[in-house]
Amino acid sequence: MGDAAERWRERQLGRGIPDHVLRYAPADPWTHDPADFTPPAEPADTPSHRAARAIAERAAAWTCAGASVLDVGCGGGDAVFGAAWPEPSPVARVVGVDRQADMLAVFAAAARARGLPHGTVHGSWPDAAGDAGRHDVVVCHHVLHNVVDLPPFLAALTGAVRTRGGIGGVVVEMLTEHPLAWLDPLWERFHDVVRPPSATHDDAVAVLREQQGVAPEVLTWTRAARLPHDAAWVTRRLCLPADRVEEVAAALVDLPPRRTDAVTLTWSP
User: Fold this and answer.
1) 104-113, long-range: CB within 8 Å, 24+ apart, which pairs?
2) What is the average pLDDT value for the chain, to the nearest integer?
3) What confidence score (pLDDT) does residue 36 get?
4) How far, in Å, CA of 145 to CA of 16, rounded?
5) Cβ(242)–Cβ(26) under 8 Å?
6) CA dihedral 17, 19, 20, 23 (to 10 degrees)
7) pLDDT tens digit string along 139-150?
8) How many whole angstroms separate alpha carbon 70 and alpha carbon 160?
9) Predicted confidence (pLDDT) per residue in 49-100, tens digit
10) Care to name a GO molecular-function term for this sequence (predicted)?
11) Quick one: which of 45, 32, 269, 12 has its CA closest to 158?
């Protein structure tokens, strides 16, 4: 393992929940509620959506048919449906990969509502790469900071691209730092756990360069401010019982606003 990959691994391991805390968690702190991932009818106009659509348009023009788009860690499919909007869409088929079956149900329902042929693969990446197949565009939004061993994850993203006529690519969206870094003061307050510095998008780019010799296009941008997570959500993330929600709510008042800087990484095999 190279220096960049080891640095990413060490920083990600430092973001884990200590065993002595996780052991007594009253609820799974990692599972997401599918209701929070229903894609909007009209996707936001973001650099990531535009990048994926541009690749899909080139692929559709080359083949005189629509492009195939794979969404890794798809949730409800916001990433892939953003590439397929607005009409007329260059996307002919979408495939979603997710470790939560209930997320795939949301994804499939959204694809049907949009009249898009679709497939789903239940599993974690890169283990599910063989079942996912190869596609013109591979999108992956806000998943990298869930990954400890980054080289095989990124290699499988690149390997899932079907290059025809030199067309095809990967579009990754992530935050500049771990998406839960804003909760670090609360980990120290409630558990006396001091978090190390977060892995950043620069660390991910360094792994790509080191492991694949890839220099991705890097675009930083500011995404729309999100509504703050409620105290009950934060309480579960902190592995605290529900009877401490009011205490957590009071602590949230003292936190600075969440950062809104995002990054789009785009590369081709």
Assistant:
1) 104/74, 105/34, 106/34, 106/37, 106/38, 106/75, 106/76, 106/77, 107/71, 107/74, 107/75, 107/76, 107/77, 110/38, 110/39, 110/76, 110/77, 110/81, 111/77, 111/81
2) 95
3) 87
4) 11
5) yes
6) 100
7) 999 999 999 999
8) 8
9) 999 999 999 999 998 889 999 999 999 999 999 999 999 999 999 999 999 9
10) methyltransferase activity
11) 269
List, in sequence order, every residue forming a beta bridge with 153; answer none if it has no partner.
Answer: none
Which domains are present in the chain?
A: 3-267 (3.40.50.150)
Q: Which residues contact 222 (CB under 8 A, 6 or more apart)?
A: 260, 261, 262
The separation between CA 140 and the C-alpha centre of its own chain, rounded to angstroms, equals: 5
CB 216 within 8 A of CB 266: yes
pLDDT band of residue 258 (cuts 50, 70, 90) is: confident
Q: What is the pLDDT confidence band of residue 183, given thresholds at 50, 70 and 90? A: very high
pTM higher than the cut 0.90: yes
CA 149 to chain CA centroid, Å, is 15
Sorted by sequence, the CB contacts under 8 Å of residue 45 that are 6+ apart come out as none
How many residues are there in the chain?
Answer: 269
In whole angstroms, what is the distance from residue 94 CA to residue 118 CA?
A: 5
Q: In what order do the strands lie in the sheet with 67-72?
A: 118-122, 91-98, 67-72, 137-141, 169-175, 261-267, 217-222
Q: Hey, what amino acid is at 126?
A: P
**Strand-strand pairing, 67-72 and 137-141:** parallel
Phi, psi at residue 141, to the nearest 5°?
-110, 125
Assigned token pair, 4: 């960049």
Grade residue 30 by pLDDT with cuts at 50, 70 and 90. confident
